Amino acid sequence: MIDQEMDFTIERLGDCRFPSPMGLGRFTGDGERILYHCRLDEIRPYLEAGAAPPQLELAGPREKLFFDPATISAGIVTCGGLCPGINDVIRAVVLSLHHHYGVGKVYGFRYGYEGLVKRLGHPPQLLTPEGVEHISALGGTILASSRGPQEPAEMVDCLEELGIAVLFAIGGDGTLKGARAIAQEAARRGKALSVIGIPKTIDNDISFIQTTFGFETAVAEAQRAIYAAHTEAVGARNGVGLVKLMGRDSGFIAAFSTLVESQVNFCLVPEVPFSMASLLTNLEKRLALRGHAVIAVAEGAGQELMTASGGHDASGNVKLGDIGVFLRDAIKEHFSQRKQELNLKYIDPSYMIRSHPANPHDSALCLLLGQNAVHAAMAGRTNMVVGFWNHQFTHVPITLATRQRKKIDPEGVLWGSVLAATGQPRMMY
Questions:
Q1: Which fold has domain 11-212+356-401?
Q2: What's the whole-model pTM score?
Q3: Residue 40, CB half-sphere, CA atoms under 13 Å: how many?
Q4: N or C: which end of the chain has fewer CB within 10 A?
Q5: What is the pLDDT of residues 187-232, one digit of tens each?
Q6: Annotated active-site positions, please?
Q7: CA distances from 220 to 227, 229, 257 (A)
Q8: Domain range list for the chain
Q9: Going along 246-383, which residue ranges are E strands?
């Protein structure tokens, strides 16, 4: 089946006329592409229809630039929840702008998009190579963050006043939609502003991007929580370790953490519904067989089982019920009514995980995402996000990246591997 809406065309501000100051010897050509699909059966419908299969523009330094680096300033903003590696990305962007291109001024905007609204009183800070030298050892973001949209016109006014030609927006779905609004407002004014998104979501749920920074660190830290839950469970009669992990709409952290530790008996994710009756029945069987059990649940799982909390947060996300507390209380009540001994330990490591500094692999990914974001901006790309697909760095239109959340396929290889690792039934409904 051909997806007519899969348009990977990247917006450009104009022709590139300035020679790059980077002495590389190997630049990425503007015509270099990689295929989105990697399976022949996915590509065949396009070939049979005489159409080109979907292709992503490769990231990397260009030989010719749109901007004269000596004449521009740049800005960086971080929005949304914390995630391992944000400071690594800030550092990579600042160092690349200074050392690769010689950009003189780089501003960091405080408290997310609020920092781009002058009347809110968050003056930007000047970011220098010396100032960001050691920030990769820190969790969180040195620029702080916030949620919620601001008026694009006010934000572009701020950028114009500071003479900023390039803005890097580090964030997830809501941040990228805000970046698109800024790019559109600049285009409406006829202003040559490059807006480049750098994908930040600990849940790894941005479409057309293989993996986002911080995800591997989150899985590694989640594994520690699962290990603790398993240790507690095996140390008591009818012991149950219950771990709630991040994952509002997509259960990738819970799924991969399950595969890493291989001690999880029930992995519950938003993409696969379950009923309490089925979960409790299967939990009883597990305890009768082995005397202990470990449950990993993503925060967005089982929302239909609870009374809706109602409302939305500042980013427009639906406020979730607390599935961890709900399961904890429901499991305890069930075994209490049956007058059966149960020793349940509940662990919620969410804020500890997202505040952690990036591990080495994520740090390297942050460096390359930051550098490729700078390369894209200097070459006049805009309204796009730097991606990673089939182990290569790419350019993805923000419109595509935010079209829908990336989710686990319940019929796919990943979920099949989770079922094989846990031994849980395919359907618990």
A1: Rossmann fold (3.40.50)
A2: 0.93
A3: 0
A4: N
A5: 999 999 999 999 999 999 999 999 999 999 999 999 999 999 999 9
A6: 203
A7: 11, 15, 7
A8: 11-212+356-401, 217-354+410-422
A9: 266-268, 292-298, 343-347, 381-382
